[in-house]
Each structure stands twice: as C-alpha cells, then as structure tokens.
Amino acid sequence: MGTHLRYGLGLVLAIAGIGGTGCIGGMFSEEGAPPLVPPPGAGVCPMDPDAYIGGDPSLYECPEFWVCEDLAGERKRCFNPGPDYPDGGDWECRDEGGTTVCRGSDFPDGGGDGDWDCERQAEFVICTNDRPDYPDEGGGSPWDCWFQDEYRICEGGDTPGYPDGGGDFCFFPTDGGDGGAVVRGGYRFETRGGRDVVHVTLIFDEAFVDNTYGTNSSDGYRGGDRGHTFRDLVSSDHAEVGFADGSGREVLRAKFDYISPSDVASGYDSLGATGGDGRMMTGDDSAVVDATSSLAHNLNELGCVFTEDSPGAGECPGWEPRVIYEMWIDAALFGAAGFGGPLLEYVHASPSRTDDTIWVEPGECP
C-alpha cells in the first residue's frame, strides 16, 4: 500500500479555524464507518507559511492538503487533517450529495467565510458549503467523503487522480550519501498580488544545515568548536533553482538569497533573486513575484531578532529551526505547457554539517 502526499490548488491564506471539530456523533456521524488509522504524514497541516513555518500546524485548517493511500481495486483513500469549518467554533459536519453540512449552536464569527451559507433551524445553526475541497480538482462523483475525529476522509474508485493542484518533490545526493533526501519540498498554484503564480517551497535537511547558531548551535558544523554563526547564514548562503515548463524546457534560473542586511526593523531580510546572495541567471526578474526564507520569517514575522545566538528553549515559541526557501513564480512564464517542476543541481550552505556543496538529483520521495 503506497502513501502519496500532494497539494491542492491554492494557498490557505486565511487561518480561520482553530479548534474546530469534526463529526463526532448523533445524526451527523457517519453511520457504520469503521475507525481508520491515517497514513504517515497525515497528522498535521504542512506547507503553508502561517501553518508550517513556526507555530503548531495541528491547530490550523488546510482543506486543500491530502495524504492518500492505495486500496484494492484501483481505489484510493485520502485523509485531510485540517478540514474547512464555518469558523473556529465547535461544529459537527457531514458530506452529502457534494455538499458539506455543519451543525453548531452559534452563528460563525463574521457570518462564516465566503464558501458557507448559514441559517438557524430551531436550536441549531446549519451551515452548508456546496463547493467543498476534494483530493483532486474535479471532486464530486468519484469521491465518497465523511468526517472522522479531526479528519475529513475521501475514498474513490474509477481511478480518480491524486490531488493535481500541486505536488511534492525530493532531491538526493548524487553520490548516494546516507540514502536520505537533502531537499524536500512542494509546489502549489495560487494567486499573489493579483497574478497567478506557482508557489515553490524548498526544505533543507537539518542534518545538512539549520537555523541554530552561536551558543545554541547544533554540533557537527565545519570549524569544530567555532560551530555555526549568524554571520555564516548571512554570508553566501543561497539556493540556486531552475524552473522547467511541462515539456522539460528550463525557462528561468536564479539564485535566491537566504538572509542579508536590509532596512527592515530587524535589520535583515531575504532579498530574493535580486539582492544579497541572490541574482538572476536566466530569464526576466519580473517573473519572480516574491521570495522569502524561514529565517526572515523568524526575525520579521515572529519578531524574534536573535542575531548572535539562536533562541534557546522557550525564548521564541514557533521559531522555525529548518532552513526553508519559498518563491512565487509567475505562472504565465510556463505558457501552454504548464509548470514542469523545479530543477536543482546542487545545494549550498557555508559552513554545513556535512559538505558545504552537495550535488543532487531528483528522486521519489519516501
């Protein structure tokens, strides 16, 4: 039985539901539904700048993220750990006829988001969403969906596709290394600044490099007792990424800055493909709509301005220890062929906990 991670269309920009509940009893429970154990990777919401870089992803909604497993007869079962709810209150929900119906005691804050229609029926508030998320773009007839505890679960036959609004990828050392991926990531299609974009995220393995430095540096960095310093991250660290269209043709390549001096309040920011250690290599820089990094998030979004020693335990709740690059590329760049994927030849960090530069090749994510 295989397990597959894919990402649906759109970024979860509004984190609307904290602590919403699924169908847990009464007429809204799934009659006779057996308790199912979710596959690995289905426990929390990943890959969103708000729900992923720092914080506790288990608290957030991510209705477009699904983890799927193969069943007999070319069927699939997909788990979503953060279903959409009318708001963050207590709701009992079910799926029926392509519509999600949720029952609660109070009207949702602000009347619910744009996908929900709510009305009071006797002592209950009933909210309906006739455009619920499915593991693929089409949704509807191939999928039979229900709620179990905090999960929304969909099963499908007739060979429904895996979620096709995005994907995941892994890159491995060309020399084999220890067998693990040195870069994991994913991409999704969304809108940013009024433009259709491809949102690409690269996550470096913490055994290669991380966001610890100074007295709280992880061990194993080249330089022995010197360890890892904040200046190391500021000087030379970058990610060189190419972007291919659906035919495999590379249409843009750039080096993306990790962190550099800037005029923002913290004094440091990620300067994308046009500043610091970033630069355009091929293509037009206007196609790079935005870029950031996890360290920029730590310093500027969390407000944890630690530039000598990374925070110790409890000093900055939500501090993201992993080195993560994010970039938003204009989808029009890929034309009719569509987005084909990121192209990485190497990863670099100086110093790293292994080799400063590792040549990589794509492979199937474990």
H/I helix tally: 2
| Inertia-based shape | globular
What is the chain-wise order of helices and strands? EEEEEEEEEEEEHEEEEEEHEEEE
Low-confidence runs of at least 5 consecutive residues: 1-31, 47-54, 159-164
Question: Per DSSP, what share of the residues sits in E-state strands of 2 or more residues?
Answer: 35-45%
**Over the alpha carbons, how many angstroms does the gyration radius reach?**
22 Å
Distance between the termini: 13 Å
Sheet with most strands: strand arrangement: 18-19-12-11-10-22-21
Largest sheet: 7 strands, antiparallel
Number of strands: 22
| Structural class by secondary-structure content | mainly beta
Q: How helix-rich are the residues, as a percent range?
A: under 10%
Number of domains: 2
Report the average pLDDT across residues.
Answer: 80
Looking at this protein, list some descriptive labels.
single chain; about 375 residues; mainly beta; 2 domains; five-stranded antiparallel sheet; 22 strands
Structure write-up:
4% of the residues lie in helices and 36% in strands. The chain is built from two helices and 22 strands. A seven-stranded antiparallel β-sheet has the order 18-19-12-11-10-22-21. Strand 15 and strand 16 form a beta hairpin. The chain is globular, with a radius of gyration of 22 Å. Mean pLDDT is 80; it is low at 1-31, 47-54 and 159-164.
